[in-house]
From TrEMBL:
Listed name of the protein: Sugar lactone lactonase YvrE
Domain SMP-30/Gluconolactonase/LRE-like region: 28-261
Organism: Nocardioides terrae
Source species, domain of life: Bacteria
GO molecular function, one term: hydrolase activity
Alphabetical keyword list: Hydrolase
Coiled-coil ranges from the UniProt annotation: none
Keyword Hydrolase: yes
InterPro entries (alphabetical): 6-blade_b-propeller_TolB-like, SGL, SMP-30/CGR1_Lactonase
Length: 299
C-alpha cells in the first residue's frame, strides 16, 4: 500500500513487442532510412532492409567484423570494412567503392560510424585485440576519428575504454558516444569544422554496458545493453525514463520518426566464441514508445 493514497501500487505492464525477424546471426547497426529499417547481420556478412510485415531484402553482401554502416547526405550507404581498412560506399550499380582510407587509424580496424547532416562521418575503434581484452591501466586506447567529405581521416578524441554506438543531436552540435567498458555515455561539443571539445559524462549508467544508441525528439538517449538484456531510455544527467527487457543480448536500437523503437539482439557467447559460435538466433523487435527519433544516425 502506498502511504499517500492508501491504494495498491500497480507495477507497469511489460511493453508489447512485435518480433519482425528471427533466425539471424549477430545482428547490429540498425538505421531508419527512407521509411524502412536497415540492419546488418555480421556473421552472415549482409546488410538487410525489413518492412513492417517482416519481409527481408538483402542490399549488401560484404564479409567484415564489424559490419557497421550509415548513410551520407546524398543517400549512399557507407560501411566500415575491416578487410579493406576503409569506408566503402554502395553505388547505384550495387558495387562497393572506396570512400576513405582508414588504415592509418588503427591496426585493429574500426567499429561504429555515424554521419551528420554536413557529411562528416565519425568512426571509432577500441584499438586493441578484442579477444584478449583491453590493456591494463587507467588510460585506454579507444578513439573517435573524423572523416571529412573529402575522405581525410583524423583522430579527434581518445582515452575511450570501448567506444561503441554513437549519435549526433538534432542541432548537429553534440556527439554522444557509448563507452561500454566504462558504463557511460560520453558527450562532446562539435565545432563548425567537425572537431570535438568539451568532453563530459553525458550519463553515468551504473553497471550497464551501453552498445548501440540513438537519440529522440526530447533529447533523451536509448541505449542497448548486451549482458543485461535490455534497452534503456535515459536523459542527459542519467535519469532513467524507461526500460525495455528482451530475452537475449540487446546489441543496438533505432527509433523511427514516429513512435517505434526497433531493437536488434542475439545470444552472445562471449568474445572467445565470436568467430565460431553458430546458435545466435538473432532477432529484430519493434515496440511502441512515446517519442520518435531525432538527429543522426541517418533517417
Amino acid at each position: 500500500m502506498t502511504a499517500d493514497s492508501g491504494q495498491p501500487k500497480i507495477a507497469p505492464s511489460p511493453p508489447v513487442m512485435d518480433v519482425l525477424a528471427t533466425g539471424l546471426g549477430l545482428v547490429e547497426s540498425p538505421r531508419w532510412h527512407a521509411g524502412r529499417l536497415w540492419f546488418s547481420d555480421w556473421t552472415a556478412g549482409r546488410i538487410h532492409t525489413i518492412d513492417a510485415d517482416g519481409h527481408l531484402d538483402t542490399v549488401v553482401e560484404h564479409r567484415s567484423l564489424p559490419l557497421c554502416f550509415d548513410f551520407l547526405p546524398d543517400g549512399r550507404l557507407v560501411l566500415v570494412s575491416t578487410p579493406e581498412r576503409a569506408l566503402l560506399t554502395l553505388e547505384a550499380d550495387g558495387s562497393l567503392s572506396t570512400y576513405a582510407d582508414l588504415a592509418g587509424l588503427s591496426a585493429y580496424g574500426c567499429n561504429d560510424i555515424v554521419v551528420d547532416g554536413r557529411g562528416n562521418a565519425y568512426v571509432n575503434g577500441a584499438d586493441f585485440d578484442f579477444a584478449t581484452g583491453p590493456p591494463a591501466g587507467g588510460r585506454q586506447p579507444g578513439f573517435v576519428a573524423l572523416v571529412r567529405p573529402d575522405g581525410t581521416a583524423t583522430r579527434v578524441t581518445d582515452d575511450l575504454a570501448f567506444p561503441n554506438g554513437m549519435a549526433v543531436s538534432a542541432d548537429g552540435r553534440t556527439l554522444v558516444v557509448a563507452d561500454s567498458y566504462r558504463s557511460e555515455l560520453v558527450g562532446f561539443d562539435i565545432a563548425d569544422d567537425g572537431t570535438l571539445s568539451g568532453r563530459r559524462v553525458w550519463a553515468a549508467l551504473g553497471t550497464d554496458n551501453p552498445d548501440g544508441i540513438c537519440l529522440d525528439a526530447e533529447g533523451a538517449a536509448w541505449y542497448a545493453d548486451v549482458p543485461h538484456q535490455h534497452c534503456v531510455r535515459v536523459t542527459e544527467g542519467g535519469e532513467v525514463l524507461a526500460t525495455v527487457p528482451v530475452d537475449r543480448g540487446a546489441f543496438a536500437c533505432m527509433l523511427a520518426e514516429a513512435s517505434d523503437l526497433h531493437i536488434v539482439g542475439a545470444r552472445w557467447p562471449g568474445a572467445a566464441g565470436l568467430t565460431t559460435y553458430a546458435d545466435w538466433d538473432g532477432r529484430v523487435w519493434r515496440v511502441a514508445v512515446p517519442v520518435g527519433g531525432a538527429g543522426w544516425p541517418a533517417r
